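Lab channel / #folding
Pinned by the channel admin:
"Please post every new chain as: sequence first, then the structure tokens as a reply. Keep commentary short and put observations after the output so the thread stays searchable."

First post following the new format, from NK:
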Amino acid sequence: MGYPVGQVSAFAGVTVRTLHHYDKTGLLRPSDRSPAGYRLYSDADLARLQQILFYRELGFPLDEIAAILADPQANALDQLRARHRRLTEEINRLQRLVEVAEQAMEVQQTGVRLTPEERFEVFGEIAFDLTYATDADRKWRDSDGYRRSMARAAAHSKDDWAQIMAEAADWRARLTAAFDAGEPADGEVAMDLAEEHRRHLTRWFAPCATDMHGRIADDFATDPRAFALIVPPTEQRPGLAPYLRTAIHANAVRQSPPAPTADPATGTTAPRPKAEP
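Reply from TO:
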């Protein structure tokens, strides 16, 4: 019993044209023909086809496959070793390309134009999560403040980033100290730290109004990837992100203009003088 070319094509997952080509080149000639002259493949032919497809999957060209099948004992092992070596080299090359692509994506999505060595030197444990950078870009890309922030970040030198990170590390140490000491999140110490963070963003990136700062704080409390940008996981404590969010929102209330008050003598209203932060 033989299998017609259409049936072989269906269960082998190759086209009829491919089988015709294998026949023409002598790589896989069917063992029989029907009375009408149609190709018929035997079980041995199917086993040979399976070998051909195996080597094709590994990337062997057809002439090398033909040589292996002509003398399997003499050629198969050496050919497989050579293919393994070439595949390993190709994997390494592609991995390097992936790393270059990721670095290019990170530059575009974070604005940080430093070499990998400079990044490690400056940022230490602080790492940019590309998934968060992508989500942030989708979320904020229409914001003028976001675009200005990215442009400022791209313009920063290595020395700028070193100073930014030094300021951030000092602020982070005082934030965790306040949290560990039990300072209330809506108290003066925590609110002063929140205001310092807002001014840090304004100074180095883009003007950060209190309402924008509040939205950033919400991200800190709901998305670990965002909070890891300012407090690395090794320095985090349970509840620290919500603590900072509360402090930032409390500071926003503190910084908001006071409600007008009525003058008992004239009946007119005037804003109450605002205390300096």
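NK: Residues 72-110 form the longest helix (39 residues).
TO: also worth noting, Strands lie at 3-4, 32-33, 39-41, 260-262, 269-271.
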